[in-house]
Structures are given as C-alpha cells and as structure tokens.
Amino acid sequence: MNVTILKFPGTNCDRDVAAALERVPGVRREIVWHTQFKRSSTDLLVLPGGFSYSDRLRAGAIAARSPVMDVVRDLIDDGGLVLGICNGFQILVEAGILPGALLPNLSTRFICRWVCLRVENSRTPFTNLFSEGQLISMPIAHNEGRYVSGGSLRELRSKRRIIFTYVGADGKRGEDANPNGSDGAVAGISNDDYNVLGLMPHPERASDPLLSPYGTEHGHTLFLSIANYVRGRA
Amino acid sequence: MFNLTPDEVRYARERLGREPTLIEWAMMNALWSEHCSYKSSRHLLKTLPTSGYRVVLGPGYDAGIVDVGEGWVVSVHIESHNHPSAIDPYGGAATGVGGVVRDILTVGTKPIAILNSLRFGDIMKSGHSRWLLKNVVKGISDYGNSIGIPTVAGEVEFDECFERNCLVDVACVGVAHKNSLLIPSAREVGSHILLVGNATGRDGIGGANLASKTLDSSSESERGAVQIPDPYMEKIIIDAIEELVEKGLLLAIKDLGAGGLATAIPELVHKSKMGAILDLSAVHLREGDMSSLEVLISESQERMLLVVSSENLEEVRSILEKYEVPNSLIGKVTPDGRIKVLWRGELIADAPVDVLVEAPPSQKESRRPQRRPDSFTLPRVSNLEDAFVSLLSSPNVCSKRWVYEQYDQEVGARTVVRPGEADAAVMKLPNGKYLALKIDGDPKKCHVDPYMGAMNLLSESLRNLTCVGAEMTAIVDHLQFGDPNDPEVYWSFEEVVKGIRDYCVAAEIPIVGGKVSFYNSDSTTGKAIKPTPVICAVGLISDHRYITRSSFRKVGSPVVAVGITSDEVGGSEYLERVHGITGGAVPKVDVREDVRLSQSVLQAIYSGAVVSAHDCSRGGLGVALAEMCMTNGIGVKVDLSKLPTTGDHRADLRLFSEGRSRVLMEVDKSKLKDCERILRGAGVPYAIIGVTGGRRLEINLKQRELIDLSVSELREFYRDALSLYMG
After folding, report:
1. What is the pLDDT of residues B213-232, one digit of tens each?
2. pTM score above 0.90
3. Which pairing describes strands A44-47 and A101-103: parallel, antiparallel, or unpaired?
4. Which of B261, B547, B640, B645 has its Cβ near the most Cβ atoms within 10 Å?
5. Which residues of B make CB contacts under 8 Å with A?
C-alpha cells in the first residue's frame, strides 16, 4: 500500500502518522509538502492533525481553500481513500467534502483525553477489521471538535455514515461520555461512498500498545483495516 | 533608559579606554543585566557539580546535553517568564514556552517534551490569581499544542506570596543523534549569520531589564516589554531547522532571547573567541521607521540566528523559503574578537567581545534572618477524616486535571506515561530506552529552612523518578528569589545553592544547566517571594517492563511502606491548611539514606515484584494512599501502627507528615519474599502496612478507625476540586 501524508504549514502529526504506518506490513509512506503534492499512485491520502495555517479564521479553513484541495477532490472522485484526522477532519469539513461543521468544544477549552468510542459501521474500508458495536479507545486532543450536523444527522444515520461515536466505558451514550458536546455524540463520519473518513480521535496515537493507558492498539486496527481493504481491491 | 550602576559605568569606560557609543552601552546594558550575566550568582553556581559520565554539555550554553546511549543524546533546559506573565499572563506564558523550545533547537536537538511549574496566589481567595492561572494555562496550551510538542508533566502550587509575582517555569527536553549535535558557538571565520523568523518590531524592548528588577505599581505600563507570541512562526521554524539539521547544513544555531541581537551576537562568538560584524540595516523589520538601537535591543519573538558556510547558503535559504520562513543575511563571523555594528554603512559600535560580555561581578551582602524559634504545640484534631478531606480537596493537593487536560500530552507519539498516571512522565526514546521527566518545587519548606528545603526538594525529585522505575541521570535547576540586594534574600539564595550542591555531590547527580531569577517580589508590599528553586529531573529506564505507575492494579496485593516516618511537619500542607501555621521543623534529609532507599526500590522494581509505587510527599501518607486508589477504583485497608517510625507518633503526624524519604509500593503477592529480601539486604526500614482490595480507603491505627471513605467519595473530593474553584 502506498500512503501519502499531506503536510501544510502548521501540520503537527505527520511524523506520528508515518510512525504508526511503519507498524503496518507492506506500507510505503511519504510525507509530502502541500505545494509538491501531485496526483500519483497513492492508495491512501492522510490529512494529519495539527494547526494548519495556525487555524486562522477557523480550524482548517485556510488549508481547505488551498490549491492542493482540487487534487484531493479529483482523487476522491476517482474512488481514492482519504483519511482526515483531527485538523484533517476539520479541513475536510471546511472544504465541504464532509458535511456539517466542527465548533469549539462546549467547555470552550482544549481537551486532551483518552475516550471510549463505539464502532457504528464496520463495513467500510477503514473499519473492516472491527466488529459492529465494538468499543475501542483512542485519545482526542482538540479545541474545536464539537460536531454539528446542520440537520444532516438523520441522513448520516440512515446512510450509516456515522462511523464512530463517543460512549462511556459501558457502551452507552451520555453527557459525561461526550467530551466536546458533539451532535449525536459523533466522533467520525464518512462520505456517501465511504472512501473518505474524518474523525477527531487520533488513531496514530493509539497504534502502539505501549503508548495506550490500556495496552490497546485500536488505531493500529484502523490502519490494518485500510491495508486489508486495499489488498482486497488490488 | 539604561540600568547600569555608577560602578558599572565606570568599569565600562575603564575597560574600553573611551566613552562607549550608544550601541555599545545598549549591548553592555543588556549583557550585564542580572538575567543575562549572573553577576550576583555565578561565583556560587560555580560550586555546583556539573560532570558525570553521561554529561556531554554542561551549564553555560542554551541547553544541557546528556548521553542516553546507542549514539543518542537528550537535551534539557529550563526558563521562567515570571514578570511578563504577571503583567500579561497569556502572552508571558506563551512566549516563555517559545523561548525554551528555541533553546533546545540551538543544540541541534528536536524538542519532544515540555514541562511546566506554575505558582500563583491563593485561588480560593483571589480572583486575580484565578485569572492568572486561567490565562497562563491557556497561553501554554495554545502555544505548546500548536507547535506540536507535548506537555507531559508539571506542577501547580498556590501560596499568598505569589499573589502579585506569579512564577511560570517552563522546561523543554529534546533528542538527537550525536552526529547532528551543534554547539551554539560560531567558530568558522567568514561564515554567514542569518536572522530567521519573525520580522523585528518594537515589542519586548527592555525585556532583559524587566526581568532584572522588581515589579512595582508602574509595571502595568510595561506591557510593551512583553512580547507577542506567534506559535505558527515557531512551528515553521522548528520544521525548517529540523530539515536543515538533518541535512547537516548548519554550523551553529542561536536563539534570540532577552536582549535580542544585543546579547545573541556577542554570545554567539564569545566562547569561540571570534568576532562578528553585524549590519543592523539588513534586518527584516515589522516597522520601517525603527532606529538602530531599537533594532538591536528588540525582543520580538520567534527569531533565531543560523550560522552557515558560504557553500551551503543558497540551499539553506531555499529550504527556509519552502517553509515560508522569512530571513535576512545580517552578518559574518570575523577572526578579530570584536563586535562591529553597522547602520546604513556607518560603523556605530566596535568593541572587544569580552569587554561587552563579561560583566563586573556584583558583591552582595548576606545575613541570616533573625527568626524567633518556632515553639508551638500542635493542637489535637478532633476529626481526622475532616482534616483529611480538606487536604485532599485543597488546591495544592487536589488533581490538576483541569490544567493538564488543556495540554496536548501525546503529540509526537512518544508519551508512555501521562500526567496523573505516575510520579513522573515517561517518554519513548529512539534507542529503545525510556526517559522519565519530572519538575518539582517546594517553597514552603525552603521558606522555613532554605538549606534543608532544597535538600527535601532534591530528595523528592529522586523519589519521583525512582517510583516510575528510572535512574536519575541529570537535573537542571531554576532558582527564584526576591531582590538580591536584600541581605536576607541573598542569604536564602546561598543556603539553597549549598543545599543543592551538598545533595547532588553526595548523590552524584550532575547539574547540566539552570537559570537564576531574582527580583521576584510582591509589586505592592515589596515582600520577597518564598525562595523557590525548581528542579527538572531527567532519568532513564532501560526496559519498558520497569515502567511503574502509581495506582493500585491488583486486588489482594500487600502494600509496603518503605522508609521511616518522622513527626516533622514543618512547611507541610497539613500544618498550613489544617492548623494555619507556617513554620516548624523542616524534615531532615540524609542523602545516603535517600540513595539507599532509591536503589533498593529500583531493585525491587527490576525484580518484577512491584505492581505500583508512589512517593509520599505533599499531604503525606494519607494522601498518597488515596491517590493510589482512585484511577483503577481499587481500595486498601492499612494499619498505621505497623509503620516504621522515629518514635511513638500521634495518628495525625503518621498520616500527614511529609518528612523523610518514603515510598509506598504495591507488591505482587507471589513475589513478596523477593521484595523483602531486597529491602532487608539494603538495610532499608520497611513494613507491610495493609492489603489492596474492596472499594474503600480504610486507615486504622490498631483498633482505632481514622479514615473510612469510599473510592468514589475520594474521587469527588480530589478529581474535580480545581474545576470547581475555577468556576
């Protein structure tokens, strides 16, 4: 699998994603500066976390309007896989590739915390090695992660485009389990064709069991799922 | 506009043999400030032990460096931004982070962790202190998070003496392969000096001097001396320098900190005995109408100097352009040992580097304060459980989750142990080892007895690293005091330095860097802060199996108290919070005993017998036990009559004394014998005081029940207390 990790000025998690992918067998990965990205034989494009362009205006707003996004749109139209993590998710939403908006957390503060997620749809290129309803852990670290659907929640649900939700350790949704106050406790969504996933939690930080407070590696499972899908498609 | 004393003015004229020019005065004014020159402290700092087999670079540079094996090195540095933060908490704290991160870049290392140590007035009483805390944390969070460096450990303390002079200490740690190390000193004649980063503006003019005098009621008007933070610029500089260092294109890097170009250029060539020619009119400016003096002394943030050979210059500049980092070519390294400054073709300064850099030492008077001897009898407390709960929920003891959740603790994907999980943070290193990091201060004890207070502080640092399974490798210190011209303040400074020296010599701990910050006094009353040395400790763990956290993990494990409990409660949280007394006898420290205890606990950890371990410090044994119960919801039942003690002490003293080196260990039931053998063999006093299990914390003294609370009650008092205070 060939993976391109796109870097904007202010992107922070590019090397972390590269390190997490190093754990996946048969992956060639490359960090590419946004002005140097050209359409290539990439199987997966990652928009990693960070503060692209200092999050000026709104988180992800400037990167979403930079020329490279036209290339990204073409890639998506051709069925290419795109994974947006944290700021990457914000960029995809700002670019209109994914619906809704990501607003400041209800607490109005930055939140860094390991959270429990429920896998709502395991039949996607990104989640095929999880089981439906599985509870997994990953950390979040963001200022603006409160997902607001703008009325599209029902449609997202019916098309099974909600991929991850925030839940408590008991698997139930609730105010305490929803760290940022997202609509429908949404932590990650896909596009209609399931080839684009945006999520606020950081799978790359949940790939090495040693770095997890629970010894888990659910982020690794997500990357393995992608490799599994790409292998199956080839 | 200059702060030189009449003696210094005379000295300058004498050494130069003529009247210095305005620009020369400005350079000496900045370089001779207390902040840059250590003129009142360096003769004492010289007595500190700085060598060790792992030390690569000791004090005197922008960062200390230690060898962590397999060709890898770790750098560490600490800075404070106290006065700027007292005036503008958000900007002051943020630029404090920026500065110390750039120090780590100067030695060619990649910054991987930030720690902070924060001190404010009493937030229960003072809205001003709550405002400061909120904005300092936001400043650190916005800046550190944006530049992609995790904040992995810290401490927060509240004491009235910091009401109008808060302390904001930030430490940064970096890592690099030995081959890419750089020394911030320019040695190659003819190499180019590039100024990179932000355009130079009028912000932060006079910062070195702001840091070198006491804040007063007019300080509010010095808001202009606080710099403007720009984490985005810092981030693109970090990325660009990382690529430049990886490609081996740089000869040296230097940060522009206090004093701006006025200090950075002379310091860059001083140790190498080179000179430099600097063209101030080549500097890229934010405001076009700046004078040569303003350009020289501006402290605009996110600026660095790169020293580059002629052959690499073009490639370096093209990489800077890729990352959109502004830069200008402002000078050259010369062989003549002089600093020459040009402005629009005119020579406006030409003086020997050593004359500019070497400030005349400043002799300070020192006098032991005439304190009345403490004589008080501690009243008995009728309900120990109430006292315990008030300690557990007190701002100094309660969980700092409200603070650390605002920091990205994991960016970089190296953080193994996060805040709140253990006595120190643990990070993964590229050589397969693990780095333990901790920052501590203890002004309450240093106030009562600066010498013993400093010893207690180091003792705690050592135990914190021990409890996560790490061997102490090196420390950096940051020494914060009031006005050094006050003989009693200066005496406390001398005592603290002696305490640090004696401990580190005996325990063989090298000090690889540090800073001194004087003039920390209340801007209204003029009263000095309590002496506040802060220690950032770096330790090594050779195998991930040794990494030990501080929460009970199993049911039915014996709980072993290692070390002896005394009745010394001087400077303790119990004395101050419950009895309202500042004073008493500060616990004595026996360094040999400390080292023996530390080594035996490490041995026990290496043997695989230790399930969890926690140091007893603030709040004593009672608080330590409660902290061990909360994360995994596992209770414990202990009997304090079994505790090894120095005498037949009262129940409250057993519970809350902070004295002596003590560690609580949860031991694997099946390996208890091995563990006991190790402790006995080392001659370390210990006792099995209880067993884990249930969902309650029950502390008894023989038949007498002292504390009986459920784990969920403990959590209620401890975990969200700070967010309740903050509203």
Report:
1. 676 656 655 656 667 789 99
2. yes
3. unpaired
4. B261
5. 138, 141-142, 145-148, 231-232, 235-236, 239, 322-324, 404-416, 418, 421, 428, 544
